[in-house]
Every structure is written in C-alpha cells, then in structure tokens.
C-alpha cells in the first residue's frame, strides 16, 4: 500500500479497525461493526463515510434499511482490509489502544523501517506538520515502538528514528510483500 493511501485511511480514528473487523468476517451491518469496534456512534459513522468516500467500502445494494445500510468491501477495500487486519493483529494489546488510532502513528511506523532523520520522515509524510510529527515521534518513543538514536560525534546533533518492538511488527504488516 502506498503511503498516501495509508495517510488518508488513518485520518479517521476507526477506519483501520473497521477494515480489520470486516476482513475478520464481522458482518457489514452497522450494529455488529459498532459493537465489535467499541467506537462512539459519531466517530464510527464518520469513519464509515470516510471509507466510502475512499471507495474502500460501498453500500450493499438490496440489503439493510435505508437508515441503517449494510456495507461491503470493494475490490480495493479487500486488499487494504487484509493489511489493516495485519496491522491490528501485530499486537493484540494495541487494537483497543488510543495510540494506534491516532492519525500519524501508522504512517510514521510505515516509513521508519530504516533509520530516518526528522526531515526525511516529514518529506515522506506530506502534509504532516512539524508539531504533529514531533508529538507522534515522542509518543511512539515513549511506548518503545520507535528507537531514537543520537550520534554524538556529528554536529549539530541529529537524532535518527527507527521502529522497534511492536513498531517492527506493524511496519512488517504494512510493508508485507514489498
């Protein structure tokens, strides 16, 4: 999956979780998906609409009530849902975690398979802001999902960032088959 698609998908908190649940066989009706995801109704609905706009989900014609439609994965959605499921299953404890639902967590982990400088990460994740990237790096480093290494022999000091522990598993799940 290209990084731009990943950034678009993760811009809504529950999108990855919804795709992973549908890939795991949870019916495409709102009630079972909402129950399985533990999301608020508002955030869940926004994520469903977002996935529909990205053409990863579509309404299942002839099924569901007009006010409670049933959804199914599109062909592109099937491929993305497999990746989403691998990401969520990379660490069962992180599936319900707030950090995995943050907009930039998964994209940052996707591009830091090799040591990267802040500016390199930022250029790969356009349109991320300095503040959003700094916060993401800080939170991921705090969870030990990223290693921060500072080479004290170089001036000015420039830290590099690389995935570790759970971050490695999520990075592999995203970049599987590349």
From TrEMBL:
UniProt entry keywords in alphabetical sequence: DNA-binding, Transcription, Transcription regulation
UniProt entry tagged with the keyword Transcription regulation: yes
Keyword Transcription in record: yes
The HTH hxlR-type domain, residue ranges: 13-87, 100-174
Database matches in InterPro entries: HTH_HxlR, WH-like_DNA-bd_sf, WH_DNA-bd_sf
Pfam families: HxlR
Name of the protein described by the UniProt record: Winged helix-turn-helix transcriptional regulator
Biological source species: Sneathiella marina
């Amino acid at each position: 999956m290209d990084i731009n698609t990943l950034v678009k998908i993760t811009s809504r908190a529950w999108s990855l979780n919804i795709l992973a649940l549908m890939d795991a066989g949870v019916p495409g009706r709102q009630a079972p998906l909402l129950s399985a995801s533990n999301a608020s109704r508002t955030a869940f609905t926004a994520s469903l609409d977002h996935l529909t706009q990205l053409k990863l989900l579509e309404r299942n014609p002839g099924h569901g009530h007009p006010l409670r439609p049933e959804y199914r994965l599109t062909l592109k959605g099937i491929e993305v849902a497999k990746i989403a499921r691998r990401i969520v299953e990379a660490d069962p404890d992180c599936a319900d975690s707030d950090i995995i639902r943050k907009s930039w967590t998964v994209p940052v982990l996707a591009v830091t398979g090799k040591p990267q400088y802040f500016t390199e990460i930022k250029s790969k994740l356009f349109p991320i802001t300095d503040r959003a990237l700094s916060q993401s790096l800080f939170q991921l480093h705090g969870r030990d999902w990223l290693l921060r290494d500072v080479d004290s022999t170089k001036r000015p000091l420039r830290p590099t960032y690389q995935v570790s522990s759970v971050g490695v598993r999520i990075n592999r799940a995203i970049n599987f088959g590349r």
